[in-house]
Design brief:
The chain is of the alpha/beta class and 333 residues long. The protein folds into 2 domains: 10-217, Spore Coat Polysaccharide Biosynthesis Protein SpsA, Chain A, CATH 3.90.550.10; 248-311. The protein is 48% helix and 11% strand. It contains 11 helices and 7 strands. Strands 3-2-1-4-6-5-7 form a 7-stranded mixed sheet, sandwiched between helices. Helix 2 (48-55) links the parallel strand 2 and strand 3. The longest helix is centred in the C-terminal third of the chain and has 30 residues, at 250-279. The protein starts with 9 loop residues before the first strand and ends in an 11-residue tail after the last helix.
């Protein structure tokens, strides 16, 4: 479980909000390979930051404070900026509730430090035995969110989009518009959208989450409607940016033709069906074909576009292309 990791300065960002029962144990479990630990008190009403200052003597720890509660994304971005400013090579995000085992950090940073990825994220669904222990509602919700994430981010091979155990190359941070990334629970998926827009390589890391007495504020049943709107927005942005603004290919033409054909087929077919029901006059074979043919052709062109989109992902990490160390100035402000 501890791969050989190339040399590099590893920073850990821990967003702290109502995690006073677990955060000291999380910090205490950090491996020696971690150089810096940023605890970001996101206006925590329980005083998580003060607790760490008063009871933690680990010299690697630095406590940052948000004046107002920004959400997990806002806290993590604060930590990212601090890590870049201090010259770290990789910033790992670990929750303070004890669900994420710090011993797995080498697995997350190894692909980045070896130049095989720009960003890594956890995936709790590799192990079938673990999946059997999860409630059906959680599994179904994650399956829906994962499919929507594939559409909106363009990373079709990734799963478990709400997983917050992540690692990011600090060389890539200056290229991300951090101020535009969601501050709330959509943060993990929104940053994937931003990473795709700059051509970053992302990899999943198999992991097992530890569930104890922690209380999650993320309710799948509530976030699916909210996330669906955000996914649709990002999907439309991604398609426009990647296929019409920055590039124009056969896939761009296929999508342009597919959408009107499919919509016409569905619309015309629905109209003729309604007319048949209300008037009792059966549609002619020509009218049926006029609905079916555009719908079929449009559907197949759309599948062709999706097939192209699934293959149209970055192969070479930006970390390799950029080289050197990250800028030490303030980023995204």
């Amino acid at each position: 479980m501890n791969p050989t990791v190339a040399a590099g300065e590893i920073a850990v960002v821990i967003p702290a909000y109502k995690v006073t029962r677990h955060i000291l144990d999380v910090i205490g479990a950090m491996p020696l390979s971690v150089s810096r630990i940023y605890v970001v008190d996101d206006a925590c009403p329980d005083g998580s930051g003060a607790l760490v200052i008063n009871r933690c003597d680990d010299p690697r720890v630095r406590v940052l404070f948000n004046k107002v509660n920004l959400g997990v994304g806002g806290a993590v971005k604060h930590g990212y900026r601090a890590a870049v400013a201090d010259g770290a090579d990789v910033a790992v995000k670990v929750d303070g509730d004890g669900q994420m085992d710090p011993a797995l950090i080498p697995l997350f940073v190894a692909p980045i430090l070896s130049g095989r990825a720009d960003y890594t994220k956890g995936n709790r669904f590799f192990d079938v035995s673990v999946m059997k222990k999860m409630p059906f509602v959680r599994l179904f919700g994650n399956a829906v969110l994962s499919f929507l994430s594939k559409l909106s981010t363009g990373y079709w091979s990734l799963f478990d989009p709400t997983n917050g155990y992540t690692a990011l190359s600090c060389r890539v941070v200056p290229l991300l518009a951090l101020d535009k990334v969601s501050d709330r629970y959509f943060f993990e998926t929104d940053i994937l959208f931003r990473l795709n827009s700059i051509g970053a390589v992302v990899r999943d890391v198999p992991m097992v989450a530890h569930y104890a007495d922690e209380v999650s504020n993320l309710k799948i049943s509530k976030v699916i409607p909210e996330f669906s709107v955000a996914h649709l927005r990002n999907f439309l942005k991604r398609i426009f940016y990647n296929y019409y603004l920055r590039d124009f290919s056969v896939a761009s033409i296929a999508l342009l033709v597919a959408v009107p054909l499919f919509c016409f087929g569905v619309g015309f077919g629905a109209f003729k069906w309604w007319m048949s029901v209300t008037t009792g006059v059966v549609a002619t074979s020509g009218e049926v074909m006029l609905a079916v043919l555009p719908l079929t052709v449009g559907f197949h062109l759309f599948l062709a576009f999706i097939s192209y989109d699934m293959m149209n992902v970055a192969k070479e990490p930006l970390t390799q292309l950029l080289g050197g160390r990250p800028s030490h100035g303030r980023v995204g402000e």
